[in-house]
């Protein structure tokens, strides 16, 4: 492997970094298991080298050297994966954050063309200055890159109204493992019926099938009008029924987050399930009408208006991840989040089963949840689990969570992806269809160079 590092240095000069402090930073991402190991002073496998390509040609050179030397390459954007997908142990880490230019903003066609290493917050700032937005705002807003969001099938806080990242992506340029560079089609028409849409090969591919180097995404004009508030419910189930009713009747919120009683106590000091909700658009009267209709539907399900303050509190604090981590540490605890999704008829059961099952594990201190990311036929439930920082407990939490999801007919991941964390459960999710993904991987990457380390994506 030393051979690979020397060849990289020969080809890329000082864009190859091997100093220990830098490699240590890239040995982990935001996967709570690796963060816990780091915090407890345990050893984490180091990357072979860090490469910071400055061009598509540099990326091609890295892939060529990996093919020739039999090394693996981990593509890295912002490193905010919570599943170990961008942790670099044992591989060459290719951090593409220097490829970060906004190449074009087309205000008439409502598209942006951007290099994939661009940070979402920078792209969004540029768009906001012109009165536009991607309206794709995940909690990792300040860390994530465009390429990382695409490669993990990300979902943002406004997904109910604007869709998920796959709905925003129109076209991509990718570098394939064999070094070929290609756009996925030769136009940016809003839709095309020309065979299976190739964008779906790369959205969610978690750096295994190719390196996304550029993307064309749809943008929206920033909506000038917005109305928000909150409602308390007698039970989580009543709140879920209200959300379903809103979706069925086409009263589509921009943001809707229904917290169960534990989550709402911790976040808002309210002892009952709490819904925070907003509507937005281009006409004040239309937004007002939506709000009025929503309020009656919510009240029919027992929701009681609880003012605008809770929504505003959420808006102010929604990216304060470090604070949440610090609070858990103060109690000698660690936490992880488990975002699953199911159809409406299964949500109440899923919520109850997950909480009971996780609370039954010795060492788990608290489980709380909120429902968000609504669809016509279901929603995501996002569980936060606090536990003693111990790997055995961590393993039990995930084993239990994945088997509850499978048993209750939920997906094992709504938006965080698979990475190293959920690989073992992929068979339960996809059944025999996992062989289709494996065949595509083998066809595009017969050398097994891209994100192919042990325990990544495919079960052993
Ligand atoms: C505090 C916090 C909050 C979060 N909130 C959300 C949320 O609200 N919604 C959500 O969806 N996710 C969320 N996440 C998860 C994470 O931010 C997302 O998965 C994000 O999409 C990762 O982007 P990144 O640039 O950091 O990717 P990385 O972590 O660098 O990489 C993630 C995966 O994508 C691959 N990849 C990265 N760039 C490319 C590329 N150019 N080409 C090919 N493959 C590539 C990597 O190899 C890896 O497999 C959160 C994470 C944290 C830490």
Automatic annotation (TrEMBL):
Domain of life: Archaea
Keyword tags: FAD, Flavoprotein
GO molecular function: alkylglycerone-phosphate synthase activity; FAD binding
InterPro entries recorded: Alkyl-DHAP_Synthase, FAD-bd_oxidored_4_C, FAD-bd_PCMH, FAD-bd_PCMH-like_sf, FAD-bd_PCMH_sub2, FAD-linked_Oxase-like_C, Oxid_FAD_bind_N
Every FAD-binding PCMH-type domain range: 43-222
Example GO biological process: lipid biosynthetic process
Keyword Flavoprotein: yes
Family classification: Belongs to the FAD-binding oxidoreductase/transferase type 4 family.
Protein name listed in UniProt: Alkyldihydroxyacetonephosphate synthase
Native source organism of the sequence: Thermocladium modestius
Organism classification: Archaea, Thermoproteota, Thermoprotei, Thermoproteales, Thermoproteaceae
